[in-house]
Structures are given as structure tokens and as C-alpha cells.
Amino acid sequence: MGRFNLEPRTSNRLGLLVGCALALAGCAQQSDLVRQEKELSAKIAKLDQAIGETRAHFNQELATLREEELPQLRGNMDKGSNQFEGMQRRVDDVENRTAARLNVIEKIQHDQANLLKTHRDRTQEELAKLAETVGLLARTVDAKQAGYDKTLEHLSRSLSDLSVKMDADSKLTSEHLAEVNRSVSSMAKALRTFGEAIETREAEQDKRLDEMAGALHGISAQAGSVKEGKAAKEGKRGSHSTGPAGAGQGKAAASAPVVAVAPVPVPAPAEGPSADGEQKAYEQSLLAFKNGDYEGGRKGFADFLQRHPDSKLASNAQYWLGECYYGAKDYGQAIEAFDRVQQSYPNSPKAPAAMLKKGLAYAALNDRGRASSALKQVVEVYPRSPEATKAKEKLAQLQ
Fold first, then answer.
1. Residue range 260-269, pLDDT digits in tens
2. Taking Cα atoms as reference points, which of 306, 286, 305, 308 lies closest to residue 297?
3. Using CB atoms within 10 A of its CB, is residue 377 exposed (0-12), middle (13-18) or buried (19+)?
4. Which parts of the chain fold into alpha helices (H)?
5. Which pLDDT score, from 0 to 100, does residue 75 have?
6. How far apart, in whole angstroms, are the C-alpha atoms of residue 18 and residue 6?
7. Considering only 120-129, 162-171, 217-226, which range has the smallest mean pLDDT?
């Protein structure tokens, strides 16, 4: 096919070249024509050679296309055809499923339309019944409205009469409240006076207790001195006696102090200067507390307890140590000090007061639970004490 296309082109070119040669032959000399003809023949030969090479290359490419690429193209076409057929089957399947779903949807829509129609009919019937009921209620309301108007008129007259009566009662109540306020004021004043008297009495009682404790220490010291004096006298008598009579007198003298000392209910005697030092240290610390020097009182009582842990005044000193902390608003340390009164001196006269002040310290810390527990313990353990009455009052305030 390519060969037939190239040969006409070559003939045309040759004719063209011949025409040109003839034209030149008419205008140039014979030698030039011969030379040009040779040149043209050489060019034509080269051109034929190039055309032959091109034809061979073209035929080779065409053969390669037929042998290699055409089968691949046919395979791709077959593969594409298979894919197209698969896609066509899928499309058909989707169309079938869609048709089935459309049928289901149409059925659901049909059922919903029927339900909607049924519901609409039922709603219309209910609306008709409701309209009848509303009409009946309207007629009933109209009938009752007249009665209500009469009742309201009667109530209005009653309210007017009641307002007049309330004004009169309000005036009487105001007068009565004024009288009650005066009574309450006088009662409050009396209660304050009574409270101040009670506080004064408690202070006097504390002072008396402290004095009694000091007196007991003095008695104890005197008893110790008496015992030591008697023992010294009996020793002298025994040293001057001789013989059997002297021995009998010595035995009698040895037994005499036991009979004399046995009834005295006091512990081991303490020396007079030591007891006086305890009493003086205690009184100085208590005076500092009463003067508002809580730090000085705290140091004094702490030093007293360290120096005289077995003193008769130790329980009182422990209590007043807690009062010093309480007065300085160090409620945590105050609670610990009052706890030591209960733990170390459970039979002390200060135990109820320590338990009460511990509850008040918890209340000052806004710990209502522990405060109530401590105050209830005062009421349960010491029900007849003055502290129990104060604990009940504070419990009422916490509730």
C-alpha cells in the first residue's frame, strides 16, 4: 500500500525535474544541461534510496503493530467488554433492587395514607365531640357565672367587714406587741443581770476552790511537820532510856506515832516552802489570765504543770491552761488542753467545765458535729451540773 503511494510521487517529481531541465536546456548551453542532468540523476538516486529506506521502516513498524500491539488491543477490548458486561449486570441488579424498594415504599406510603385518612376521620369525630362539650361547658359557665357574680358580691361585702375588723384587731395587736416587747426587754435585762451574777458567783466559787486547795496544802504541810516533830521526840526518849523498862518505853514510843497519824487522810507530807511556792506560782498565773494576759498565764500554767505534775492544783492548772488558749482564740490547743483534764484528772471538779469548753471551742471552729457530741456528753455525764444547763442552751442554738 505504501509502495503504490510513493511511486506516483516519484513520477511527478521526475516529470517536474525533466520539465525544468528542458526549460533550462532552452536557455543554457548544452554543457550545462549535461552537468545539471548528472546532478539531477544523482539527487534522484539519493531520493529513491531514502524513499526505499522509509518504505522498509514503515513496513517494519506496520508488521510490528500487527504482530504485537493488535493482540494486546484485542485483549484490552475483551477485558473492557467483560467489565462492561459485569457493570451492566450490576446496574441490572441495582435496578431490580431499586424497583423492589420502590414497591415497598409505595406500599408503605399507601398504608400511611390509609392510616392518615383514618386518623383524620377520627380527629374530626373527636373535634365534633369536643365542640359539643365546649358548647355544653360554655352554657354551664354562663349559668354558673351569674352565681359567681352573686357570690363575689357577697364576698366583697364580707371582705369589707373583715377589713374593718382586721384594722381594729391590728390596732389591738400592735398595742399588745408593744407591751410584749417591753416585757421582753425587761426580761432580757433581768437575764443579763442574772447571767452576770452567775458569772460573778462562778468566779467566787473558783476563787474559793483555789483557796480551799491552798488550805489543804497548808494542812498537809502542818501534818507533816507534826509527824516529824513527834518522831524526833520519840527518838530522843529512846536514846536516853536504859534497861528493860527503857526497852519497853522505846517500844511504846515506836508504836505511838502510828496511832496518832493513821486517821489523817493526806498523802506523803510536803515541805512548807515547796507548797508555798506552788500556791504562789499558781496564783500568779491565774491573776495573769484574769487580767487578760493570756500568753503570760499560758506560760505560767505550763511551767507549773512541768514543775509540779503531782500537785493538788495540777488539774486546775491544766483547765486554766485551756482557758488561756481559748481566750487567745487558739481553739485547737484549747481542745487538747481540755482533753487532758478529762484524761489525766477525770474526778477533778473542773472536768465538767473542761468538757463544756471543749464543745464551745469546736463550735467556734464551726465543727457542729463534734461540738454537739461534746455538749451532749456534758449533759449525759454531768446531768445535774451547771455546765449541763449551759450545754443544753448551746445545743439549742446549734440546732
1. 333 333 333 3
2. 286
3. middle
4. 2-27, 30-64, 70-240, 243-261, 272-290, 294-307, 314-327, 331-344, 351-364, 368-381, 386-398
5. 84
6. 18
7. 217-226
**pLDDT of residue 138 exceeding 50:** yes
Nearest alpha-carbon partner for 376 in 366, 358, 365: 358
The answer to whether 396 and 379 are in contact (CB under 8 A) is no
The Cβ of residue 334 has, within 10 Å, a number of other Cβ atoms equal to: 26
The CATH classification of domain 274-399, taken from the options 3.40.1190.20, 3.30.420.480, 1.25.40.10, 1.20.120.520: 1.25.40.10
Taking each helix axis from N to C end, the angle separating 331-344 and 314-327, rounded to the nearest 10 degrees, works out to 160
**Higher-scoring residue by pLDDT: 324, 187:** 324
Rg (CA), the chain: 67
**Which three cell numbers mark 163?**
377589713
CB atoms within 10 A of CB 118: 10
- Residues 252 and 235: their CA atoms lie apart, in Å, by 12
Among candidates 347, 331, 338, which has minimal Cα distance to 317?
Answer: 338
Q: How many CB atoms lie within 10 A of CB 394?
A: 19
Q: What global pTM score does this model have?
A: 0.36
Over the stretch 293-331, which tens digit does the pLDDT of each residue have?
999 999 999 999 999 999 999 999 999 999 999 999 999
Q: In 3D, which of 18, 11, 20, 19 has the Cα closest to residue 47?
A: 11
Break the chain into its structural domains and give their ranges.
274-399
What pLDDT sits at residue 144?
A: 77
Question: What is the C-alpha separation between 288 and 299, in angstroms, rounded?
Answer: 10
Mean pLDDT check: name the lowest of 52-56, 211-215, 241-245: 241-245
